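Sequence in, structure out.
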Amino acid sequence: MMATNGQKLGDVTVDGTPPRAGTSSEERFTFSTQPSVEDIRRLQAEFTDERDWNKFHQPRNLLLAMVGEVGEVSELFQWKGEVAEGLPDWSDSEREQLAHELSDVFIYLVELAEKCRVDLPQAVLRKMALNRLKYPASKVHGSAKKYTEYKD
């Protein structure tokens, strides 16, 4: 079935943007399954290779570029006070700007992981397993304390 630009098809719209957050608190936002992190790594590697930028894209440079992009994300939130999940008070233009800046952060993160030879998806799984040990749900449920503050 063909859809017009902007219609929702599963977890993304035809124009590639995620659908807005639903009204039900039980609904969870989900990412699209494509492109994969590996696809993004490959696309960025091709982009960098085509421009002969590898000499500039070394770990330190990528880290500093990523920090700069995080600063740009911060600017978008800077004077807004507390922001509700789903950004219901944000304009389409503000949402699009956020998408651009978060994409920059993610692209630099993936490229930094590549240059440092860190298999990011596998590292995430290992880190989440460690976090489950450090923050057992039975001890930390509803609390924001650091793991060092919990008593056995």
